[in-house]
Write a sequence for this structure.
């Protein structure tokens, strides 16, 4: 459960006030799969950082699982990020020269897990994304799609309230992109995982059940997508 | 999060950039090695000077002309001061019972010649007791005795180096050398003592009476009185050193007709005084050299800081990611601080090994016998640690205070 009320992020750039986010209000319920869509400069990245507790809003209220995030200090924010949010990035952001298993163990380490339990959980997460057989491969020994799967496993491993993916297929070829979208849809369908996709790509957005469109820092539409594309179906151009 | 996790992370980061890590710690390695080697060699030098002075004769008091200066060192005084042969005779009469041996010397530099070999050396006029007072060992022949002095014999005893310089590997005993044009028969050679203070190795010893009457001439006279360069006294019992030293003072002040307000125009130095003075000198030198080495440690520290700042910039994205998956500011700070401390401790360990090796190398090759002390090792190791922490703090703080969003976006 995520409630945003009149969220805004203003900052000063020279003499101009930049309104990266200007009064966004919405609620995302548990188990929803939502796309936040908009062109670059629309404020979607700013909104993602605030939702992901990477950045604080300059105005408005943000409740994550009932916790008022805008009141938290830095180390509390770190804890919220570690436990409630699973990030997936366009560039995967895996640690180089570090095995898939150890990459996935990273959030567990910061959450205080150690030893056998940490390893078991990481292994299960890798199995869930279909990489049970490649746990000891370093990122440079894995394909782009496999690397993104490791990143998704890393995002899932702390059983977060929200899986927050920022252009997750942006660095992948279309075939691999489809596979990753299939994985997100199956996580949503089979595990009831709340998924928020941030993207500029309308086609990617139409894989979700609800599309929030942003422009110039404001929400311009928030609509249910009754017929989401099932990943793997042929792409239809609008 | 466990501390051991942090150490693992640090080691992984350092292993990932092996070449860079090695180059980074080089500064610390060199600094620590220099500190350890210098302190060990300095300690060794002090020990060897101490043993050399102690081997120079037991319970030795040395009386030299000159006013006592601050700090116990004799230095130039406004008026030249002199010790006379008469002073020696007075002392001998006055202290006969409490001292075991007393030996006056007069020395001056002359040209020595044997065939084509010719060089300047210090020629020392001595009495028979001189050899005992200074614990000389004769390797060949005999030392100068009382009858040589009585008869003013033209005989000479050579220091070891002088003997080999003049005669090479041949035995000098029974041969003739020329001192300032005067022929002397060599009657003995001293054992090699090594380069210690007042080493006899490069000297030539002649009977003091021969010296006054046939060699030194006018040079050794002041107002018609025979001068001496110094008077050495070997005391029977070390406990009486202070008493005898006071008696010497009393006799000489009276002989020199000094009023109670006058400063003494001579020094009475015991072995302990000499040791103290010399140790103060070597200690100052050791501290000075150690400080120079410390500066190289400081430079090493700056090198580490530089590399860590580069590393933080390079790993901005990694830091952003770690923060995104739940790392707190403190955890990032600790991670980078441990990396720097690990680097400097590794540098410290390698440096200690290297420094000890250098010190041992000096010992094995016989240049200087070094003494490796725990103090030197602990000092340089803790200095390396302090440098690691203090120079690591700033880069670590920079890493910890990165904004997660900005760090993730960093290209």
């Amino acid at each position: 459960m995520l409630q945003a009320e009149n969220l805004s992020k203003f900052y000063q750039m020279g003499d101009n006030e930049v309104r990266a986010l200007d009064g966004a209000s919405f609620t995302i319920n548990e188990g929803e799969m939502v796309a936040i869509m908009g062109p670059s400069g629309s404020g979607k990245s700013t909104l993602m950082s605030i939702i992901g507790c990477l950045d604080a809003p300059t105005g408005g209220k943000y409740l994550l699982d009932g916790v008022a995030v805008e009141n938290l200090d830095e180390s509390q924010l770190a804890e919220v990020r570690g436990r409630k949010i699973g990030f997936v990035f366009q560039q995967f952001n895996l640690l180089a020269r570090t095995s898939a298993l150890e990459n996935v163990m990273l959030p567990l380490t910061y959450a205080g897990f150690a030893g056998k339990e940490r390893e078991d959980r990481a292994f299960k997460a890798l199995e869930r994304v279909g990489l049970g057989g490649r746990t000891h491969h370093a990122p440079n020994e894995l394909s782009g799609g496999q690397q993104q799967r490791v990143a998704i496993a890393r995002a899932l491993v702390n059983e977060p309230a929200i899986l927050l993916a920022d252009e997750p297929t942006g660095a992948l070829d279309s075939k691999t992109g489809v596979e990753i979208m299939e994985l997100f849809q199956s996580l949503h369908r089979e595990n009831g995982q709340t998924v928020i996709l941030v993207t500029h790509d309308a086609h990617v957005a139409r894989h979700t059940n609800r599309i929030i469109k942003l422009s110039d820092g404001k929400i311009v539409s928030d609509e249910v997508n009754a017929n989401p594309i099932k990943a793997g179906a042929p792409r239809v151009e609008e | 999060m466990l501390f051991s996790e942090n150490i693992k992370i640090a080691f992984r980061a350092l292993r990932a950039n092996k070449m860079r890590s090695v180059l980074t710690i080089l500064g610390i390695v060199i600094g620590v090695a220099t500190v350890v080697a210098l302190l060990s060699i300095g300690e060794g030098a002090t020990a060897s000077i101490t043993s050399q002075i102690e081997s120079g004769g037991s319970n030795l008091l040395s009386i030299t002309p000159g006013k006592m200066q601050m700090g116990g060192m004799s230095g130039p005084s406004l008026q030249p001061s002199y010790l006379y042969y008469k002073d020696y005779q007075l002392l001998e009469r006055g202290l006969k019972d409490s001292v075991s041996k007393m030996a006056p010397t007069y020395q001056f530099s002359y040209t020595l010649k044997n065939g084509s070999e010719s060089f300047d050396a210090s020629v020392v006029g001595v009495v028979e007791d001189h050899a005992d007072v200074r614990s000389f060992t004769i390797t060949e022949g005999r030392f100068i005795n009382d009858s040589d002095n009585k008869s003013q014999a033209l005989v000479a005893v050579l220091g070891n180096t002088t003997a080999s310089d003049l005669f090479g590997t041949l035995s000098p005993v029974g041969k003739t050398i020329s001192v300032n044009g005067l022929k002397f028969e060599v009657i003995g050679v001293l054992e090699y003592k090594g380069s210690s203070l007042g080493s006899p190795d490069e000297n030539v010893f002649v009977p003091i009476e021969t010296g006054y009457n046939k060699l030194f001439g006018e040079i050794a006279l002041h107002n018609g009185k025979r001068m001496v360069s110094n008077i050495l006294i070997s005391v029977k019992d070390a406990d009486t050193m202070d008493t005898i030293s006071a008696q010497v003072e009393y006799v000489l002040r009276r002989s020199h007709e000094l009023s109670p307000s006058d400063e003494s125009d001579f020094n009475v130095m015991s072995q302990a005084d000499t040791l103290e003075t010399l140790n103060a000198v070597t200690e100052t030198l050791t501290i000075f050299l150690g400080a120079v080495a410390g500066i190289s440690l400081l430079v090493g520290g700056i090198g580490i800081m530089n590399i860590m700042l580069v590393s933080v910039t390079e790993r901005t994205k990694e830091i952003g990611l770690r923060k995104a998956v739940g790392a707190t500011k403190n955890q990032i700070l600790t991670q980078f601080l441990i990396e720097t401390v690990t680097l400097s401790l590794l540098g410290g360990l390698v440096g200690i090994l290297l420094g000890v090796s250098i010190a041992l190398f000096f010992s094995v090759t016989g240049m200087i016998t070094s003494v490796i002390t725990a103090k030197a090792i602990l000092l340089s190791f803790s200095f390396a640690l302090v440098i690691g922490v203090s120079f690591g703090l700033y880069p670590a703080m920079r890493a910890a205070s990165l904004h997660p969003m900005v760090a993730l976006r960093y290209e």
Remarks:
- Residues 82-264 of chain B form one domain.
- Chain B has two domains: 3-52+277-409, 82-264.
- The CA atoms of residues 308 and 395 of chain B lie 6 Å apart.
- The first strand of chain B starts at residue 60 and ends at 65.
